[in-house]
Design goal:
Blueprint lengths: L15 H7 L1 H14 L1 H4 L7 H8 L3 H13 L3 E4 L2 E4 L1 H6 L9 H14 L2 H6 L16 H25 L7 E5 L5 H9 L4 E6 L1 H12 L7 E5 L11 E7 L7 H14 E10 L11 H13 L8 H10 L3 E7 L8 E6 L10
Parallel strand pairs: 3-4, 3-6, 4-5, 6-7
Antiparallel strand pairs: 1-2, 7-9, 8-9
Helix pairs in contact: 2-7, 4-5, 7-9, 9-10, 9-11
This protein binds S-adenosylmethionine.
Length: about 350
Amino acid sequence: MVEEQLLTLANMIDPEPIESLAMAYFSSQVLFVATELGLFTQLHGQSKTVVEVATALGLSERSAELLLNACVSLQLLEKQGGCYANTPVSDVYLVKGKTGYQGPYISLMQHYYKLWGSLKLALLQNGSLRSEFDDYVAQDIDWARKFIEAMHCGAELVAPFLVETLDLSSHKLLLDIGGGSGINAISFVKKFNQLKAIVLDLSSVSEVTKEYVARSGVADRISVMSGDYRYVELPPGVDAVLLSQVLHAEGPSVCRNILARAFAGLVPGGLVIVRDIFPNDDKLGPPAAVLHGLHWLMVTPEGNCYSKAEVIGFLQDVGFQDIQVLALPEPAHYLKVIIARKPLISTTQPD
Ligand SMILES: C[S@@+](CC[C@H](N)C(=O)[O-])C[C@H]1O[C@@H](n2cnc3c(N)ncnc32)[C@H](O)[C@@H]1O
């Protein structure tokens, strides 16, 4: 039994880290609701008083002032001379209609807020709440559209760094497996004029992919393939394969299976590119990567946050060579991609 002692100044350590974590969701909810109500869109290009914001959002003055002040405390807004204005980061990412708007991603996180309320259940039953949480992308096109829109706006921020890091100027055909909106394939094809691409995704998603590709301006060089990456026969003649944020959704044996089939489908010398949210090799940080591991426990049957060392192991297991870890350029240098090649001379593939 723990001995009960009174806390004294001498034995007390600062409880702030615990208190901050206990109420971290207060801040998330302020971001979710302010974005949903269109607060930052209202304040784009013009500062407003409490009364003006209250009128525009249909809130009481008391509610509006509390929300506005909370946003200032979280550095989403600034206040000067009785008026509230967007901070630079809010003005770039939270104004609806502007390129870079993260509303769909924030709305997806708001949706997952409910899911995270069931973390204990997922831990106790050791796995996915997919049956309890009826939102798997394969189920219907409306959910697929919402999910892909959210993935798209996040990926849109990374794609420029990805195409800067990887030189595909000597490649002919890129296969983007689990390509979602196709944003990565679209970005590569736009940068490298000789390149064509195929975006593979589940049938519910590929209907949405076709819409993004049609609007891309490079639709004549991108085709969309519908299928399940665990079973579908991969197209011939591919000399680069991209797996961006895909492997984390699968268990190790499916990861090896996808990579083995990519290896078999690639031409000799072909390139595989793996982009994901990698935790440190000890899996103790950074928090965003480690917390995603718990998220994948909840939403996938066997998903995990694989370290770079684990992914390198999968690549070696199926025969890839010349494996390198590349950092994306500043300010995205904390994001990494792993690249590897199929050997020019065929070697016997390990079992
Ligand atoms: C996290 S999203 C990543 C999308 C995109 N690659 C990116 O980086 O933004 C994962 C994608 O894998 C697709 N996916 C999931 N399971 C799949 C399967 N069994 N076969 C094909 N695609 C699948 C999803 O539909 C989704 O588009």
